[in-house]
Design brief:
binds adenosine-5'-triphosphate; six-stranded mixed β-sheet; 356 residues; binds magnesium ion
């Protein structure tokens, strides 16, 4: 699926505009701080109806402005219109003109995968970073995963609140929900990791890495079965009550990434960690493409400058493969590999122009 028209109003430093986005995509070039990432953020906003940088909605409103609007028309699928009013802290989402009642039914209509400099933290950071990434990707690939995950989180929060209040009976009341949704979340993550491991190696080989990589889900495998939960929860209850939190379940799991048998997080070079993170994004792309039978757009923000020439060329070829629309931002045209043959837009003080 491709963006045909993007409308932005009141969004960060971007001048209000309506863009006709070329079918192949664009390369955005402009000095630091002029609005390239803001434009990528606007284009990514309709995916999950939130900022890809984790900013709050009110931070997206142009300084001093009343709110923002992002509109997206595509080659396939309904149009999306999002309006956020700062004073009321209210967000309205129209899909083909129909107002959506909940955020969960409004998201996932537009599919895009973002490659960001901060992605290295998926590899370098703690388990929470990897779980967040995995949950986002599985949620986009399968709306049932998202609804199960939200129910699991709600049951977990309620059980933890009861534990903190020292109320074992109240805590136990949330355990059936914990078991059924927690088993589904664990099973989906485990199945994904098992299926994805060889693809990750292949993506890294293609990016020019020479080592043998490993991707493994680390959790309690028995918890894919709801029937295994009652014993596990009973065994952990005393400790759970003492510490006011649940020590059983996928909120404690991790995705273990290795290079030649050693943890990439601890032993990988910065370049190896960056390549590993890019390959994870490529897995995200392949998973969403397969599960949703649609081609997500690729939003690539400033990832080329950190790579050596060979890896730049390999990544550019990978991104140009296939039919996806690509929006690639860089502060200097010179840091974009020649393989990346895309129409160029310049970004200057929030004003975006077609070059030439
Ligand atoms: N809510 C806002 N309202 C107005 N301006 C904002 C808002 N939020 C951020 N900005 C400004 O937007 C400018 C452009 O930010 P952006 O991150 O898009 O730059 P960039 O072109 O990607 O730069 P770099 O090459 O350094 O990554 C920043 O200078 C910032 O001050
Ligand atoms: Mg930027």
């Amino acid at each position: 699926m491709r963006a045909v028209t993007l409308v932005v109003r009141g969004f960060r430093n971007l001048a209000d505009a309506e863009f006709a986005v070329p079918e192949a995509g664009v390369a955005l070039v402009g000095p630091n701080g002029h609005g390239k990432t803001n434009l990528i953020e606007a284009l990514a906003y309709p995916v999950l109806l939130r900022s890809l940088r984790g900013a709050r909605d009110r931070d997206l409103v142009r300084f001093g402005g009343p709110g923002f609007h992002v509109g997206l028309d595509r080659d396939q699928g309904p149009s999306i219109r999002i309006t956020y009013v700062a004073e009321a802290a209210r967000k309205t989402v129209l899909i083909d003109g129909a107002e959506q009642r909940t955020i969960t039914e409004a998201l996932g209509h537009w599919l895009a995968v973002a490659f960001l400099p901060a992605d290295i933290s998926i590899v370098q950071g703690g388990a929470l970073e990897r779980r967040k990434w995995l949950d986002r990707l599985l949620s986009l690939a399968d709306p049932h995963y998202l609804s199960g995950l939200l129910r699991y989180r709600a049951a977990l929060a309620q059980r933890n609140a009861a534990l903190r209040a020292g109320d074992a009976a109240a805590a136990a009341a949330f355990e059936p929900a914990l078991a059924s949704y927690g088993a589904a979340v664990t099973a989906a993550r485990l199945a994904w990791a098992e299926a994805a491991a060889s693809g990750w190696q292949a993506e890294l080989d293609a990016l020019g890495e020479t080592g043998e990589v490993g991707l493994r889900y680390r959790g309690d495998d028995a918890l894919i079965d709801p029937a295994a939960w009652p014993d596990r929860l009973a065994a952990s209850r005393r400790r759970d009550l003492q510490q006011g939190q649940t020590h059983v379940g996928p909120q404690r799991d991790d995705l273990v990434l290795t290079l030649d048998g050693r943890a990439l997080r601890a032993y990988g070079s910065t370049g190896q960690q960056r390549a590993a993170a890019i390959a994870l994004r490529l897995l995200e792309l392949e998973t969403i493409r397969r599960e949703r039978s649609a081609e997500p757009a690729l939003l690539v923000d400033d990832v080329f400058a950190a790579l050596d020439g060979d890896r730049q060329a390999r990544l550019a070829c990978r991104l140009m493969r296939g039919q996806a629309q690509r929006v690639v931002a860089a502060p200097r045209a010179a840091s974009l590999p020649t393989e990346l043959d895309l129409p160029r837009w310049s970004v200057d003080h929030g004003v975006v122009r077609e070059d030439g």
